[in-house]
Design brief:
The protein is mainly β. Among the domains are: 176 residues, Sandwich (Jelly Rolls); 97 residues, Immunoglobulin-like, CATH 2.60.40. It has 3 helices and 20 strands. The strands form 5 sheets. A 5-stranded antiparallel sheet has the order 3-6-11-8-9, with no helix packed on it. A hairpin with a 4-residue loop joins strand 14 and strand 15. It is elongated.
Length: 435
């Protein structure tokens, strides 16, 4: 009985494993019947394109923005690599074994890959693609910290290969991070070819700015053929007498109303919102209780570093919005308020699109100026004593001697005489013994 249960469990596990492997290995065409795009699921191999840092899926070509401000970490070429599920797991591969990845480290980038395909003129072309972004200052692959990464797909209906061309029709941009999102766009072919674009835009110079694309689907609906009328043979007209022309009263011409020109739509400006705050703990992020800061000078410059607008924060009315009409790259800079130092970058390079909004925060921490104490150096002057008059010397006199009396003098002399006689007697005694 136990053996039978074991084999049944083993069979169930085997079936589930086989089913999962078949699911992950199924081609993208299983979800996209009629897909006309070669190597749409990136399972058809990868090749290097002039550098080992640019490895792109076959049938695709890379594109990217080259500068300006690359020395500051902006607008650099991303690194292109295959994302291999057998090496890195399935987090960034939606189906099959591979996805296309491009990324940069501590730098921004604007780029992706494209593919040109032949179509019937006037066909309706639809593109669907799955994409995922990881934009983070931390290393946890499941969480993006402080990132702003935008994903999109596009079609050039003329078949051009300039991704900056105004002919490219782009999908709405997605800034969803850390999960798969589906992007789609439609356009009608204007000639015999169209170009498909997969694009990623990293806005901030973070440690990780990664984009992953998988399962691209391109379907084409051919134009509806126009029906042609078949000519029928004409009947031979019967002979009729020529009628007399009856004068017809002329019609009064009707005045045609003049066309009123339609109003030109006003372009919706992009917005860059800025503020400065007091970063009390110095971590570069705005935490609860960290208030707005006055006195920061914030400027908006174009790609040529020409100032366009400035704002000095008051610490009350921010965030302040810079209005940007023209799409392009812009530089936003900050001069710290007096007594403060930055705990975040003092300049950001951003790409602005009509109707888009970008929020920028400048973090500053107060650091009081240390008080400088000046210690006087010893003077080299040698101080000499002033010639002051010396006090007169007063002789120290001993006690006054009392004059001796005659008896005292005789007593003193008798002592001397006694000593002299004793010496003479001693000398005589010594000499007498020698004889």
């Amino acid at each position: 009985m136990r053996v039978g249960c074991f084999f049944r469990a083993f069979a169930i596990v085997g079936a589930l494993t086989l089913g999962a492997s078949l699911y992950f290995a199924r081609p993208v065409g299983a979800e996209c019947p009629g897909n006309v795009l070669p190597n749409a699921g990136f399972e058809g191999g990868f090749t290097a394109r002039g550098a080992i840092q640019v490895v792109v899926a076959n049938s695709w070509e890379p594109f990217w923005q080259e500068g300006p401000f690359q020395e500051d970490g902006y607008n650099r070429r991303p690194e292109y690599q295959p994302e291999d599920a057998s090496r890195f797991g399935r987090r960034r591969v939606r189906e099959g074994n591979f996805a296309q990845k491009w990324s940069s480290v501590y730098a921004t980038h604007h780029g992706g890959i494209y593919q040109r395909i032949n179509v019937t003129p006037n066909s309706l072309v639809t593109v669907h693609a799955w994409a995922q972004a990881w934009s983070s200052s931390g290393d946890d692959p499941a969480v993006s910290v402080g990132g702003n990464y935008q994903l999109s797909v596009g079609i050039d209906p003329t078949g051009g290969t300039d991704w900056n061309s105004p002919n490219v029709v782009w999908s709405p941009r997605s800034n969803v991070l850390d999960q798969w999102v589906e992007l789609s766009v439609q356009a009608r072919a204007q000639g015999g070819a169209v170009t498909i674009y997969l694009r990623g835009d990293a806005e901030f110079r973070l440690k990780h700015n990664d984009a992953y694309f998988d399962d691209v689907c391109v379907t084409i609906v051919p134009p509806t053929p126009v029906a042609t009328n078949t000519r029928r043979p004409t009947n031979t007209p019967a002979h009729t007498s020529t009628p007399t022309n009856t004068p017809v009263p002329s019609e009064t011409p009707t005045l045609t109303p003049s066309l009123v020109p339609s109003a030109t739509p006003t372009p919706v400006p992009g917005v860059v919102r800025v503020l400065a705050f007091e970063d009390r703990n110095g971590d570069g992020k705005r935490d609860e209780g960290e208030v707005l800061l006055a006195g920061a000078q914030i400027a908006l410059l174009n790609a040529q570093r020409t100032p366009l607008a400035t704002h000095t924060t008051d610490g009350v009315s921010e965030p302040y919005a810079f209005q940007v009409v023209e799409e392009g790259n812009y530089l936003v800079t900050e001069v710290d308020p007096p007594g403060y130092v930055s705990t975040s970058p003092n300049q950001w390079m951003v790409t602005i699109f009509p109707g888009a909004r970008v929020d920028l925060f400048f973090a500053d921490r107060f650091e009081p100026t240390p008080t400088v104490t000046f210690t006087p150096k010893p003077s080299a002057t040698v101080f000499r004593p002033t010639a002051t008059s010396m006090p007169s010397l007063v002789p120290l006199l001993g006690p006054t001697k009392t004059p001796l009396t005659l008896s005292q003098r005789i007593s003193n002399m008798s002592g001397i005489l006694v000593a002299g006689l004793a010496f003479i007697l001693l000398l005589a005694l010594v000499l007498g013994r020698r004889r």
